Amino acid sequence: MNITFDEKNRVFKIDTANTSYIFAVVDTEGFLGHIYYGPYIDSSDVTYVLRTEEYPFVPSVYAREKSPFLDRFLHEFSGNGSGDFRESGIRVKDPKGHSVVALQYKGYRIIDDKPALPKMPSTFAKDGKVKTLMVETYDPVIKLEVVFSYSIFEDSDAIIRTVKVTNKSEEKIHLTKIYPVCFDMEDEGYKMLTLHGGWAKERQIEVRDIAHGRTNIGTYCGKSSHQEHPFFALLGPDTNDDQGKVYGFNFVYSGNFIGQVEKNQFDCLRVSMGINPENFDFCLESQEEFVSPEVVSIYSNDGLGKMTREFHDLYRNHLIRSEYLYKDRPILINNWEATYFDFDTDKLIAIAKEAAKYGIEMLVMDDGWFGKRNSDELSLGDWDVNEEKIKGGLKYLVDEVNKAGLKFGIWFEPEMVSLDSNLYREHPDWIISVPDREPAQSRRQFVLDLTRREVIEHVYESVAKILRSANIEYVKWDMNRQISDLGSYGLDVERQGEICHRFVLGVYELQERLLQEFPHLLLENCSSGGARFDPGMLYYSPQIWTSDDTDAIERLGIQEGTALIYPLSTLGAHVSDCPNHVLGRNVPFETRGHVAMAGTFGYELDVTKIPMEDRLQIPKQVEMYHKYHKLVSSGDYYRILSYKSNGLNDAYIIVSKDKSEALLTYVQVINRPNRLSRILKLKGLDGSKIYKVEDSDKKYKGDVLMNIGLPIENLNGDFSSVMIHLYAE
Ligand code: DGJ
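^ thats the input. predicted complex w/ DGJ below
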């Protein structure tokens, strides 16, 4: 790991173990020109790539005439409105109403540190092995200082970027767009991989061609969303899981984002990622600064699999703070699909007692325990225990569950208020809404205005008061609608464009405070399933509910897309009842268990009602979880087969870092007649080691397993599965 500045060539070079990122200051004008991002190279004498004197088309006889130059130059970051007609990375509304930003290089600093971002999630180094380059630029006309930061860690190929904008003038200035990443590169026939989705079908891998013009993803709904995900990758022409060039970009943010590739007339690409400028307008007083969230970029020369493992390691080593990161999580049983709103103390205690018999370790009481909430139509915001349902009170219930041998967890949706609630009746101005317009309802609820101090304080106390009242060891923090009607009764006229960003900061503040007061709390984020599964939330919670679709077969695709970036230990995954509540499909209990094992593992069913033969499988699943969790949470993940792509079967293997053991999961989704037993080529093993198949006398050498393969006996029909543990002798 190194960051250097070549004074002679004025070239910045950022080197991770396997990659180099290079840009330069272009002489008099002080533009930053992008030179290279790819496999590690030694030299920094590479400025010829900038071709500053070339003119690409005939009418421009003077190559350095400003507009043609700016419009074809490969920028490291582009200002706005002075002749480069591609997407800009920054825009303002200055006191005279103008939007032009033209940045000039001023200087740089390289430090052996990485300052945390104010009030936002950010990656960090536990061991101090980190370097940060800060490149300072300035627009002397509007007196705007913009500092670009690039951080790298000793043990990672990731480059982490953020940008800080400071108003150095005496007057207010509005920042109306800011992307931490907005750089240009040559197109080498890349395709764009994104994770699109919807409720119950989150993070589906999709690959598209990059045509001329703009290809983008993004959200305007106040969260990272079901529909799009703050991630995209550029794939070289021959890229697959195991080979080829990949550039992955992920935004460490939980609000509106944009990720975009723009192909211009010279077949070059402008790659950008940042806060979505739609409805964004941040007012900076004199000397005030705005710091953007971080973008992580990872280059892999060895396909998507290598990129995935880099992301997993980065997030495990440098983002997730929770003490539970590698710990076995208590195996929980959640009552949502078991009871929905129809439960009381007796029912929950009965579930807990029955669950205890099979080794389940925690009961989570989901939605419906407060106010008058017997349906999703009311009472959000009224966080008082409904003692008609929770007879004897919450402490009594928790104590009884503890006595049955289970821990206790609880559900909240703190950011919301129902139309029919005491809180809304008392404070109708506490919701995000526009005066004189009827705000849009969704699930009969509104979004609380977390840009307001008094609302944050109220929400915090409502949650903390419940947690202080009993031995509650886990919180599921849900968020079940999008943000519309952008208006705040608490913000000045010129700050109304700050609502979405300030709201996200409010969520971060609430979760931070919760973890400060309850440092051992296990927090699980959730948003109508997995609509806020993003790196920002992972800074606060080591696990996130992946999807309301608990059908094991649908989960294969959802978990494949999610695990493309996020470690398996972060994927909330439960065994639920059949027929599945979303799809009506029946999948064997064993397969449901195997698929959920690639996540936090738990149950989402009424254990007092499921067939006895299913109940009797639970102890074995509990034992498997505890046996393999360390490997699953800390190992390297390799995808072997994708049911999403082949329509037949799915397989992945998790290999320990020292390659001494591996866990293979194979799911035969569709059986086929006249089949030989399948020989599955494994990945990630040590070719020279001999691996023993647990519970059998079979042994194979690693190179044989990877090049010829492991025989998988024909399984028993559709939706059957097997998990095979291999260990080196
Ligand atoms: C959406 C979540 O994804 C579900 O698991 C459940 O908690 C419901 N909300 C409760 O309203």
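The mean pLDDT is 96.
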